[in-house]
Amino acid sequence: MNDLTELAGLRHYPLARRGLMMGGLMTGFTLATERVDAQVIHTDTAGLDAGETQIPVSDGHLPAYFARPATGSNFPVILVNEEIFGVHEHIKDICRRLAKVGYLAVATEYYARIADLSKMTDIPTIFKEVISKKPDAEYMTDADSTAAWAQSNKGDTTRLGVTGFCRGGRQTWLYAAHNPHLRAAVAWYGPIKGPTSAIQPHTVMDIAGTIHCPLLGLYGGKDTSIAVDDVNAAAAKAKAAGKTVEIVIYPDAPHGFNADYRPSYRAADAKDGWTRMLAWFKQYGVA
Q1: Which of the residues 3, 116, 142, 223 is marked catalytic?
Q2: Are 258 and 5 in contact (CB under 8 A)?
Q3: Pick from 6, 97, 147, 152: most CB atoms within 10 A?
Q4: Cβ contacts of residue 236 below 8 Å, gap of 6+?
């Protein structure tokens, strides 16, 4: 169940088209990922340069959303890893929030080669037909391409960080193990265990001891899809290998507690996590 922990909404795909393990944990997961129309936080674009762009990759382009301050250059860069429904309005708002405090933030539609996720609503189908078909190695090189785009668009990738939510939290751990140039990473409720395959050969637990940068993990104590014991075990494995990892468990928070468009949203925990994330990036040289 641990890899089935992502949801939201996706749009605009030049590559795809513009524009499992179910069981007893499904009820809690559905609550955590149920989409509602309203969004609590709306960040405007005043003082920002923000919008859609195209990320050059090995076989074409991937659509993405970026935000950065409207004036200046050489901004520190944050890569924002999407949930399984992609770069929807909440993820775009995350980019704008980061830009408001001085970052160039960019969120790429990493699954756009496979499908238009905005047309899909069934979670098991999304996972089986899209998420499970994205090779981890391709995801990592796509993220490298996103960083390269940022460097060419007023970013300073000597100050590079990464964050992500749900499945994007898993990818944040993996990218921290992939890119030796990262300064810091922040994973929001990213799955620690889960099924593996030839194209997705490793779990977070497998790679925890190989991360290249300090990593902050923000998790919910009432997340029925990610066991706190597993989170702590991954952190212990990383620390045993000499890595810097800090885990914060919010005792009453479910999965998706930062997702302010879902019933799982917990305002106080989300605010605290956001403050910790910004402090983490500053402490380790991204800001």
Answers
A1: 223
A2: no
A3: 6
A4: none
